[in-house]
Amino acid sequence: MKKYFIGVDISKQKLDVCVRSSHSVILECQLNNSKKVLPKSLKSLMSKIKCDIMDVLICCEYTGMYINPLIQSCNVLELDLWIEDPTQIKYSFGV
Questions:
Q1: pLDDT tens track for 35-52
Q2: Which fold has domain 4-92?
């Protein structure tokens, strides 16, 4: 079972990141959305929250090509990544 959930809001230049445990927000930050920088930034984030890769699930919405650096970084670091359809997220709140 995952102990930490990392929600990611993706844009062209940056990623807005929120790290949660089951009951609270642990950390909020911004990371550069770059293939070169993102793996190091994610590794640093993992060491900041002092967790094992197996305890983390990263969640984001599909944003077309802007999601590619995150996908590649998660593959390199062997992080679990959940990608959700934006309309599914919108309608899950009853909007």
A1: 999 999 999 999 999 988
A2: Nucleotidyltransferase; domain 5 (3.30.420)
